[in-house]
Amino acid sequence: MSKGLSLFEKRRRRNRTALKARAGSRPRLSVHRSGKHIYVQVIDDAQGKTLAAASTLDKDVRGQNGANIDAAKAVGTRIAEAAKKAGVTQVVFDRGGFLFHGRVKALADAAREGGLEF
């Protein structure tokens, strides 16, 4: 077994360093998906604080299946609302090593429709 990083970890690091280089003072919209759920946070890297968060484990969305595109759309609209409450309208999208299709793309599109700019 090799001691190096997996391809996923390499892609995650490469993506995150590129985002930090061009983000400026914008917060980061970080996405994580598992087999059962999808999670998203708006993170201010300058202060190291989470400004807003949403996931399929929230009480409003919990009854649905978390591993489908409809649930990802619901989480995308929820994060857009939470970010607006926190006073954030412009973010940098951090897909976190996940490919931009399926649930990740559905979440991003719903967040854009909700008013976030990235």
From TrEMBL:
Signal peptide: none annotated. Keywords: Ribonucleoprotein, Ribosomal protein, RNA-binding, rRNA-binding. This is Large ribosomal subunit protein uL18. GO terms for cellular component: ribosome. SUPFAM superfamilies: Translational machinery components. This is one of the proteins that bind and probably mediate the attachment of the 5S RNA into the large ribosomal subunit, where it forms part of the central protuberance. Belongs to the universal ribosomal protein uL18 family. Part of the 50S ribosomal subunit; part of the 5S rRNA/L5/L18/L25 subcomplex. Contacts the 5S and 23S rRNAs. CDD domains: Ribosomal_L18_L5e (cd00432). PANTHER family: 39S RIBOSOMAL PROTEIN L18, MITOCHONDRIAL (PTHR12899), LARGE RIBOSOMAL SUBUNIT PROTEIN UL18M (PTHR12899:SF3).
